[in-house]
Amino acid sequence: MAYARILTHKQRKFTAKMHDFDSLYKTYSPQIFRVCMGYVNDHDRAKDLVQETFIAVWRNLAGFRNESKVSTWIYRIATNHCLRALEKEKRITKVDMPENLAAIDDESPEEKLAFLYSAIAGLPEMERIIISLELEGLPQIQIAEITGLTAVNVRVRIHRIKEKLAVKFKEHGRFD
């Protein structure tokens, strides 16, 4: 036996409000996003402002008096939210970080190792081979035999490779 669900007045009003809100959001959110981007020029902040705007629309939809177009009402809410956000940002004192400030070492050993290997991957082939063998702990004489270079040449190349890697580390702020 099928039964019809009887909605209370509040439930019907909520359902109608939800339907209206969905259609308003689908219709106006792209335009409101562009308006917010015009104010803040930050994609993530603009998305937040769109959400704040439509939360206000949701809360006040039942009180909308149709004295203006609904689009005008929504744009006004968005504008007010954007202006308030800009005003808040002005009140917050912004200070540039000093450039010579030492970075706090939050990297895990795995992240450090991954950076090392990515730096090594940027080296020419012979240098990659030499430094990889050096990192494996092979004696420089054995590296010379493997690569066909002299032991002196291997020692010089290892020194130069380490200098290149040190520069890469410094460029990325990963060297003490």
Question: What is the overall shape?
Answer: rod-shaped
Task: Assign the CATH architecture of the largest domain.
Answer: Orthogonal Bundle
Helix content: over 70%
Rg (C-alpha, Å): 31 Å
Query: Beta fraction of the residues?
Result: under 5%
The figure for the number of domains is 2
What features would you highlight for this structure?
2 domains, mainly alpha, Arc Repressor Mutant, subunit A, 176 residues, Rna Polymerase Sigma Factor, Chain: A
Structure description:
The termini are far apart. This protein has seven helices and no strands. The chain is mainly alpha-helical and 176 residues long. The protein folds into two domains: 9-91, Orthogonal Bundle (Rna Polymerase Sigma Factor, Chain: A), CATH 1.10.1740.10; 109-171, Arc Repressor Mutant, subunit A. Helix 6 crosses helix 7 (151-171). The mean pLDDT is 80.
